[in-house]
Structure formats: C-alpha cells, structure tokens
Amino acid sequence: MKTLYTLLLVAVVSFGSALGQTADLILTNGKIWTAESPEKFATSVAIRGDKIVAAGNQIDVAKHRGANTRVVDLAGRFAMPGINDSHVHFLSASLTTTQVDLTSVKTLEEAQAAIGKFAAENPIAPWITGFGWQYAIFPDARLPHRSDIDSVVKDRPVVLSAYDGHTSWANSKALEIATVTKATEFTGFGEIVRDASGEPTGVFKEGAMRFVRSKFPPATREQQNEALKRGFRQAWSLGITSIQNAGGGQSDIDPYSGLLEKGELGVRTSVAFSVGPQTSQADIDKIAELSKKQSSPMLRVGAVKVMIDGVVESYTAAMLEPYTNKPDISGTPPYTQEQLNNVVRMADKAGLQVYIHAIGDRGVRMALDAFENAIRVNGRRDSRFRIEHIETIQASDIARFKELGVIASMEPIHADPATIRVWSDNIGADRTSRAFAWRAFELAGVKLIFSSDFPAAISMSPWRGLHSAVNRQTIDGSPVNGWLKQWSVSVPTALTAYTATGAFASFEEKTKGQIAPGQFADIIVLDRDPFAIPSSELYKINVLTTILGGKVVYER
C-alpha cells in the first residue's frame, strides 16, 4: 500500500477555484465520520492551512481544488476527528518511557522479573522508578511489601507506582534515603502503611507518597522536552491530537510553553492547575491571570483541579457507606464541605473552570453540592463544571449532573474487567451494580467525555478504552460476573465522548472535535471502520495516519 506521503505528491489539475479558496490538501474517496452527529459522514474533506474549508462529497469539495492542491485517495478507508484525551497526566506519562513498565504483569513473580531485568539493563541509574502494577497480582489480596523488591534489588532505591497512581511501593533502600522509620509521623490525606509491629511496609498511599517521591532526582528541562517529544509520537500513533492535562503547577506548564515557543508542541494542550483546601484568593487570581496569557490554539490554561478523594482499591475513595470488606473504613475526604465550597466558589467567580476528582459516591455528592453552592452564590454562567472519574454514584445523584450542567468525565479503561476484582471486592455487589454507569448518564442527557488518565491507567490507548466502553469485557472476550453490560454505550456515543464533547469540555467546540468548515484540520485515518467491525475487535484498531493542523505528523 502506498504511504500517504507518497500519495500527497500526486499532481492535481486545477478546477479553476476562486483565488483564496484553493485547498492545500484534499482527502477524498473515504468514509469520513464528521462527529457532527452519530450518522453524519462525508466522502471528502478539503484543508487550507491548518483549517478545514469543506467536508462533504467529491462534488462539494471539488471547487476547492487548484493547480497546487495535493489530493489523497483514501481508497475507502475510515477517517474521523483526532482523539481528545480529556484527562491525562501527559508529562508524567511521557517520562514513564524510561521507567519499569508493569502494566502487563499478572503475578508478583512477573513483576520481580521485570524489576530485576530493568535494574540489570540500567546499572548506573541512581533510582529505579516504575508504574502500572495492579493490586490483584499480590497473593491473598495483600498489599505489596518492601521485601518483595529487596529480594531483587536492594543496593539502589526502587519506587513503583500502582496503575491508578494513588499508591507507591518502595524497597528498603528507598525508605532509608527518605528516612522513613517506625517513628515517622504523617498527618493528612493518605497513609504510611505499617505492619503489626508499626514498621513501614514500603507502601505509601495518596499524600504520603511524597516521602519517597520527593527524593527522586528531578528531570532536567532537556529530559522533560525529550520525554514530551516521545510522548507526542506515542500520542500520534494512537490518534491523539488534543489533551487536557488534569493537574500540575507552573513547573508543569513551563515545558509545554517552552516547546510552544519553538514550534515543537505536538498536541493541543489544555492544563488545569492543582489546588488544595488551603488555596487562597491570591492563588486563584494568579491562575486566572495566567489563563489570559496562555490561551493559544496549542496551549491553554483556564481550569483548576481539585482532589476530593482517592481510589477504591486502597480504600481512600470517599464512600457514603463503609467498605464491604473493611466495615470500619469509608474513606476520609481531604476537604470539609465548607472548604470545598470555598475553593470552587472562588475559582468559578474568577472565570476558571473546575475539575473535581471524585471516585467514591460520597466524593461525587460533595462535588455536586459544591457546584450547586457556587451557582447559588455566583449565579449561573457557562461554567462547564466537571467531575472526574465517577466510578461509583448513587442513582439519585445522576439527575443532578443535568440540573447543574456538570460534565461527567470518565475513563472506560479504568473499567477494564481485567483490573476490577479488588475494586469490586472492596465495595461489594450492590455498589458494583452502579459502577461506571456511562449509559445512565447518557440517558439522563448529561454531557459525557472519555479519556485515559494515563499513566494512572493500564493503557493510554483510546481504542482499548473504546472496547471497554462498548463491550464491558476484557480484550480476550472474557466477561466478568456482575460487570453489567447495561451501562455500556454505542460506538458513536463513545467516539463522540472522545472527540466533539471532549472539545466542548475545554470550551473549544468551535475550533476542534469535528470535521467541519472552520475547525482545525486534526484528522486521523484508521485501518478499519469502528462502525462496521465486530465490537469484539475494537481494541485491534490501528491508526494509519495522523494529521494535526493540516500537517501529516504520523504514518504507520
């Protein structure tokens, strides 16, 4: 098969286009899903500069052909808008390319082998860091222990993040460097996990992870830039052209803005600043001022990210009722309702969008209460409030999303049944029956957006996420008892949540997310048609070509 690069060299005869309306590039003879509606398709699209000037059939687009127009015959292939990953931690994800990848290991022994192999291949690395381990790999439903790593690597510090990003597993050398002992105290959201004698086990939850993470040698700007460039290439290979970076601070913005100045920022990026219970009006004003300066089509700052709870797997998600297998625990939020109301109110009044991470049903309710309070105090405006994750929810709270105009921001990849055994055991059958209720939100008329949350997930692939959203089963086809198919969604609903609605969620629906005149020419070509193939094969989709702003940035 000829590559797109080769096809772009095809000479085309001018059709006498009006001056100024001639396209630079035309894609034709394809099945092009525009994302304007579930059934809206075109056969051709014309691009001038970085924008789409026409989309329709060959005749509609022909008037934009000129002597220098390049034409690509898609030969019936499927094309669609680029994927918008609406919740990702992209710099962290990009830096994982130099870490131990444990996302595919299924046993403790496999994890130990991967750690040992990485250590042997990187003999001078002062720290060994990694990500992706699942709670279910440890026998007898126990948490990991520092001795599990010590048996493989004990001469260098090792710190490994769980696949959800909310728990770290460290060896004894890392605890020694961090000076974490039996006497070490921690107050705040999280925990230093200890054994029966009070000795630290090497497991740190939530805020306590800073004890070991703060000791990592910081990545240099050059390392960050190179990591981001690797990340851009990975994103393009998956069809991702836009991201919404969920959290961080000025140090997280700087690498993106530096690459933007050089013309090397490889995905359209929107960033939410992390805030906490003690965030002041001055802090909010500073973020609001920065949002006025960073508002280009490639880099935007205009939101804040609030963490109201943790995750179900480590019992830190805030639940309305105790955990099923730990009846003395229900998860303690790091905010009081008053503190949350105050931060949300200030941010909303300053014109900033608010994302609230809420996984437990209590966390979700607290977030909704805070948004309702902001509307009551500040008045209703186009706030586009967002709640992130929403893994559990009381049925009565779903309608409030619609009433308050709150966007449901969810990650189908988190519901991959391969990862939910521990999750389901912790909260029991009743709450599992309301888990990841995408279809319930859709039926309630709630704006639904999808994302990966990578590297706090087993994969950044939107096609793995699409598979989970539509099938509610593992990629090998194995369903999980109780993992209700009724909450799954259709292919067009899921793809809209990854494209057009994702653009809406960052106030960019007028410029991206669809294949329509005036939109940025962010387009991907796939090796198969997700509307036509068996749903069990959705995860097998490959991206053949990624176009960003009218330029081909990736070819398979």
Gyration radius, to the nearest Å? Answer: 24 Å
User: What is the CATH C level class of the domain at 1-81 and 513-556, in words?
Assistant: Mainly Beta
Total number of helices: 18
Q: Helical percent range? A: 25-40%
Low-confidence stretches: 5-19
CATH homologous superfamily caption of the domain at 1-81 and 513-556: Urease, subunit C, domain 1
Q: What is the name of the CATH topology of the domain at 1-81 and 513-556?
A: Urease, subunit C, domain 1
Share in β-strands: 15-25%
CATH architecture classification name of the domain at 1-81 and 513-556? Roll
Quick check: average pLDDT?
92
The major β-sheet equals: 8 strands, parallel
Shape verdict? globular
Structural class: alpha/beta
In the sheet with the most strands, the strands line up as: 8-15-16-17-18-19-20-21
Total count of strands: 24
Distance between the termini: 11 Å
How are the elements arranged and paired?
Blueprint: H1 4-7, E1 25-28, E2 31-33, E3 41-42, E4 44-48, E5 51-56, H2 58-62, E6 70-73, E7 78-81, E8 83-88, H3 90-95, E9 100-101, H4 108-121, E10 128-133, H5 146-150, E11 158-162, E12 167-170, H6 172-177, E13 190-194, E14 200-206, H7 210-213, H8 221-237, E15 240-246, H9 250-261, E16 268-274, H10 281-293, E17 299-307, H11 337-349, E18 353-358, H12 361-378, E19 386-389, H13 395-404, E20 407-410, H14 421-432, H15 438-443, E21 448-450, H16 462-471, H17 491-497, H18 500-504, E22 523-526, E23 543-548, E24 551-555
Parallel strand pairs: 1-6, 2-7, 8-15, 9-10, 10-11, 15-16, 16-17, 17-18, 18-19, 19-20, 20-21
Antiparallel strand pairs: 1-4, 2-3, 4-5, 7-22, 11-12, 12-14, 13-14, 22-23, 23-24
Helix pairs in contact: 11-12, 12-13
